[in-house]
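Q: Convert this sequence to structure tokens.
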Amino acid sequence: MKEISTKELKKLLENKEKFILLDCRGIDYYLWEHLPTSLNIRWKYIQDQAPKLIPDKKTLIITYCDGFTCNASIRCYKNLVKLGYKNILEYSGGIADWKAYGYETVKDPKYIIAENVYRFPNQTYYGEEVNSYLIEEDDFILLVDGPQQLTEEHEDFISYFDKPIKIFLSHGPTGGDVKELQKKYKAKIYLHKKDATNEWLTVKPDLLFENHFQFNNNLKVIHSPGHSPGHSPGSSVLYDAKNKILFTGDHIEGNEKGNIYDFFNHQDGTEGKVELRFKSAKKLMQYDFEKILPFHYKMILKNAKNVLSTFIKKYENLHH
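A:
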């Protein structure tokens, strides 16, 4: 097996040499953090994907993963050899060694919302794209509204943190595939008490919280009723004080233009009790936040408090 050092790899990148830098980890690890210019194919999928993405078997390919504690790069290397690729190097130092040298990695802001906050890719709910998140705290990880689809890669990524798993549901219908985490890893599901009899609830919560519940000093739950009358009386928002983020479920959502999705004019049956929903929205203004991360629709990643304030002022005089 031929290897390449950190300095040698850095020189190839600086000289803009032609080669494929191949991240051999799962998609979540890659989106969390990866090396510049790298392509992602998990080592298990090399046989299916490599011939399509790298048709020329003489191409220089450099495989990497997390570093010396990870064997994905070696497995990837061996699978490429079996497929007949002739020009392969393994960068065994991986992400860990690259960072130890002080070199920059790539983090996609659509998925890395903050240093310890991650958005899962490819999540859907009845065919619609939705958002599920992971927050890493010192002594546990908190999953928010899912994942809706728990793939093998997502499960591997979640278990990688090696911390107790807690799951916050902003309202009853957002459980997704978390039953498996509850069963296999003893994950604890948290839901507002008022959603305990929710007709769309597909999981059995371990803890039914009430108003003013906190996971720790950083993560506080805000009861925010008004969304979807009759099926989400326990609708709640999660406030991450350290990162200045509101995880808003379906209570407050963004649209394509970066504004608040206007539930006053959202007439499809899910707009809820708009007066109560508006009152709950105004209550959020007492918190210091910069980002809004919903379950449905678009995230608002900049100046979210100003965006919500503008929305509130628009309807303030009409809805006292």
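DSSP finds nine helices and 17 strands in the chain.
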